[in-house]
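Researcher: If only I could read backbone structure tokens as easily as an amino acid sequence. Walk me, if you will, through where the backbone shape changes along the chain. I have put the entry right below:
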Amino acid sequence: MKLTYEEAIIELEKILDELEKGESSLDQSLKMFKKGIDLYNYCNKLISEAEGEIKILLEDDNGDMVESSYPMGG
């Protein structure tokens, strides 16, 4: 999958909207659900990778975590 996190979230939201409508056949709903699970796992992978990069950036030369005055997530 070659989506950005934002693109994956948009796709996941579209799937959720379609599933909530309840207008799809069982087969279509199952396919959308499976794709939604894949997108969810993909987003979690991207978040984990970003957290790893942040951790590396916040480590000092001794491998200790450096306290940052910048709040994460905002």
About this structure: The helical segments are 5-21, 26-58. The chain has one domain: 5-58. The two ends are 27 Å apart (CA to CA). Residues 5-58 form one domain.
